[in-house]
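Milestone M4 deliverable, item 7.
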Amino acid sequence: MYLGLDLGTSELKALLLADDHGVVGVAHATLTVQRPQPQWSEQRPDAWIEALDSVMTALRARHPDAMRSVRAIGLSGHMHGAVLLDEADAVLRPAILWNDGRSAAQCELLTQAVPNLARITGNLAMPGFTAPKLLWVREHEPGIFARTRRVLLPKDWLRLAMSGEAVSDMSDASGTLWLDVARRDWSDELLAATGLTRAHMPRLVEGSAVSARIKPELAQRWGLPAGIPIAGGGGDNAASAVGMGLVAPGQGFVSLGTSGVIFVCTDGFAPNPARAVHAFCHALPGRWHQMSVMLSAASSVDWGVRAFGFADIPGFFHAAASLDNAARAQAPLFLPYLSGERSPHNDAQARGVLYGLTPAHSRADIAYAVVEGVGHGLRDGLDTLSRPPGARPLSLVGGGARSAWWSQLLADILQAPLALGAGGESGGALGAARLAWLADGGDEATVCTVPPRRGLFTPGEGTAELHQPRMERFRAVYAALKPVFAQGSA
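Output delivered:
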C-alpha cells in the first residue's frame, strides 16, 4: 500500500494506492487563498498542516488496515510558492503562491543581473516563479528577508513538518529559477543574484528516491508504520504525468483546468524560452519535459457562462455546438487572455477580446467563439513544443474534458488525437503514490503503467482546412493588438 499526498491551491488530497493499482481510499481537505492586495495570492502554511492532519485522520478512521500497510509516502504540490523560514524553521510570513503577480519588476531586474538566465533555467523570468518573489521580499520586506534562513516550496514544507528534513525534488525545484535544469543542481549564480546561497536551499533528490522518513509521533498519530520513507515526489504536473504513465519521450497530456497546460516528455533538456515554453526536469531520473501554459482555459468558459447569462456550463456548450460549419466560419474570434498570457507570448498585459462582432451574432456565436478561442490558445502552445512525427495521442484531463463535444473540437483544432484515460481525475495524488512505490523499490515498467483508455478523439476529415484560416486570423488579431495591450488598461 502506498500513500500519495497532493497539495493543491484549493484542497489537499490524500490517496491510498494498492500494488494492483487499485485506489483504496481518498480524502480531501479544503484550502482557501488570501488576496490582501491586487495581484497578491497567499496561503498560511499552518493551514496546510491542519489539512494534512484532517486527511490523515480521515483515512485512518475509514481504512485503518490499509494505513497500517503503507510502505512509503509520496508528495506532489503546486509549484513556485515561497515559504520563508527563520533559523528555527518557523514560518516568517504567509507563503507567496504560484499565481501571485506582484514581482513583475523583479523579473526584469533578475534578467538584467543574469543575462544567461534562460540558458541556465530553460525558462524566462516570470512573476509566477520563486526567485523573483524573494527579490520582492528583499525590497519590500527587508526585515523578513534578513531573518530568512531557508526557502522551501509548498510540498517541501509539508515534508519538513512530517520528517524534520529539508528536501526538494528536481521537477519542483525546476520552477524556482534557481536550478540549473540541465545539470539538475542549484545554480550559485542565480542564488547570488537574489542574495541567497546553497545554505538557504533544501537538499535535492530525484522524485523516485527516498528523501526522508516520517517522524515517529506522526506515524503513531496517523496509524502508519514507524519509519516509513517519504519519496522525493514532484511538482503537480510532473506528478500527474507519472500518475498517467506518461514518462517516455513524446508522451504528454492536455489539461483543461482553470489554466490550460500541454505537457510533453523529452529525453533531454530542450529549452525554448523565446516562445515562453517551460523546460523542467521530470520527476524521474534522466528525463525532462516541456510545458506550455495558458492562464485562462476552463476559466474562460466560466466567464462566458456568467457574462452572457447562461444557466450552466452544459447549456453554454449546447449553444456553441448548435452552430454548423458555415456559422462557425462567420463567428467572432475570442482572445482568451482574461488574465494575461504565458505561452507563447509571456504577455501579462494581454487581455480578453471578442473581435468581429456584428448585429447578426447571437449568444450561441459568442459561446462558440469562447470555446474555439481556448482551443486556439492551446494550439499556439502546442506548436512551440517538441513532438516527434506520429507521436502517440495526448491524454486529455481536467474538468473541461467532461464535454465530449469540446474534446472533439480541441482534437480538430490541435490536429492531434486526444485520449481519455481512467484515473486522470486523481491527478498529482496518484502520481505521488506511484513515486512512493518507486522509492520502495518498485519497477518503473510495473508502476508507471498507462491507465485503460475510455475514449479517443481524432481530428475529423477536412477540419484542418476549416480551422486553419481562423487560427491565422486569431494570431493576426493578437499581433495587431499587442502594442495596444502594452499601453495598459484604459
